Amino acid sequence: ILDVGAGWGEWALALTGIIRNHLIQLPCAGSRYEIFSVECDAEHFDSLRFNYGTAQIDGWLYRMALADKSGWRRINKGSISSDCCGASFSFGGTFKDSRVLAWLLGMWHLVSGKTDRVDTSTLDLFIQNHLLTTPQFLIMDVQGAEELVLKGGRITVPSIDYILIGTHGTR
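Below the sequence we write its predicted structure tokens.
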């Protein structure tokens, strides 16, 4: 299971509970499962690490972002508005279905010093370097950067059995 934009681990916690308690049969979770969580926001990552330890989740944590290109990106730190609860790319992605609003929001965060620099990887390279095999289940809640993540997964996305994408807009 690959959880991109993992936040504080809400999906990892929920899926771990479902799998451990056999509440429903997940085809992708046999007797052995692993959760790989990717989160770019430092505060959320600290909460994610705490929740993994408390719930004894079998998995790996990565503080970075997935995008259409490997390298680095600026992110807006913390809550970016009342409509969105997590970090987002300062320049790229969308906000309220608008690339212009995302760019303006990024400029405001940059000028006010509320940005952070994070390493990025494409989904294809991340899977190749860390998972070694295509995950059966992809969960993604990346605050408007969904299209960028999918573009970076051109090779592997068609092979993923289940994809769950959390969005804040209609695109």
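The first strand starts at residue 2 and ends at 4.
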